[in-house]
Here is the input.
Amino acid sequence: MSAGVVDLTLWQLALALLLVAAVAIVSIRQVLGLERDLLLGSIRTIVQLYGVGLILAAVFAAARWYWVVLILVVMTGVATHAAVSRLPKPIPGAYRIAAVSLFVSTGVTLAYVIGVVVQVGPWYEPQYIIPIAGMILGSSMTSAALAGDRLQGELRVRAAEVETRLALGFSGREAVQPLVRSALRAAMIPVVNGMMTVGLVQLPGMMTGQILAGSSPLLAIRYQIVVVFMQAAATALASLFFVRLIAGRYLTPAHQLRRYLL
Amino acid sequence: MSDPIFEIEHLSLAYPGRRGPPMAPILKDVSFTVERGGALTLVGPSGSGKSSLLRCLNRLEEPTAGTVRFEGRDIQALDPRRLRRGAALVMQTPVVFEGTVRDNLRIRPADVDGDLSEARLGQALADVGLEGELLDRDAATLSGGEKQRVTIARALLGDPRALLLDEPTSALDPPNAALVVETVSRLRETRGLSIVAVTHQPELVRRLGGMLLYLVKGEMQAYERVGDLDVRLQAFLAGERAAGVADAS
Here is the structure.
């Protein structure tokens, strides 16, 4: 069924811009000083989304696997950079670690969703694989960043505890395990909590989009359920790999804590 | 007839910089020996590298040059986990883990076995001058002095041959400090434990006896028998005592 989507003309987009003008008025009246950022943000929203739209339109039209793979690689690269730049303290090898974690978590989850759950044919059908990969990467990136941030904080605060365990004869891995656990929990709790209220507080973006595009709500929620579960899996995998590998950077083969990295 | 437990030769330590060459050296060409059952105290102004030196002995720190031998073997050839069970480090700020005192005393790597019976735990507490009923206390509620002694008891339960103490009395008030000094010296006499201690406590230096190593800016300024310290070291210790009194008042 296709109820037909209302086309949005440029004039209508211009009308939407009035909403931002309202924000600007609030900012000026309340002396928030946000006008400049607001202007820049609005321009970036338009330029970035138009850019992505044009690229996607081209890739959708071409429907070649190598274009799809190229887009996925670029997306992973951007997500890697974002995850690393959110680490409070830079550490050597962080890029490689983030890239490996995001590649593995996204690759595994994506392959399962596309190949086993949704069974898209061909696998590189851009309409499916690109938005799904985007959602998986987004979750992976956020959770890896959250877990990394938490791990570094824990290491700084609990270095003496780690070294006490090392001094008692524990291996490096055993000595940081409680910190790894707490970082993993910090990364996963938002996702698990999100599962508790999904659909009750607000409709998830993807589902909203699908309904707007004319899908039946019953089909939209099925997709949304898949999305929630795949995001949970991606979160767990990405934060697990990221935190384990990051924790490893702080330890030497001789079971020492590299304090100078803290 | 000498039977050294630790032999340290030309040990140097510098912390690596984030990039490029190592940063300022922490220890420069330090050499000394600790006899089995003997004692060595490390003294010197703060920042002189005493704690770092101690941490080189159980390889929490990796020396940039020189060798450390434990019981005749280069520690590079030992599994660090075994080395650390043989040479137990007690840190300056005691770390107790979540749980009761019993949980804290029983903590050890999964692959290590040994007697952890109630009787032995009670004995370990008695050895450091604590009551057996403390076993059920939440470790977080202990006083600083009690925590410090629990960490010493925890170290002793691994049956180490050497005890490395990093300012074991610095966080304690004078009565508690005296108790720890008493405990440590008694352990050396009754168990034949070798002791290497960083300390600012003249009483601990005197009670332990053995050798004294005076470090300034990572360099050995003196290495002498505690019985016949020269005027300068006696003055330094007297100064430390005065500082200790000033701190306590």
Strands of chain B lie at 4-14, 25-35, 39-43, 65-70, 73-74, 87-90, 162-166, 194-198, 211-216, 219-225. The longest helix of chain B spans residues 174-191. The longest strand of chain B covers residues 4-14. The interface with chain A takes residues 15-18, 58-62, 80-82, 84-85, 88-89, 91, 93, 95, 97, 107-110, 112, 151, 154-155, 158 of chain B (CB under 8 Å).
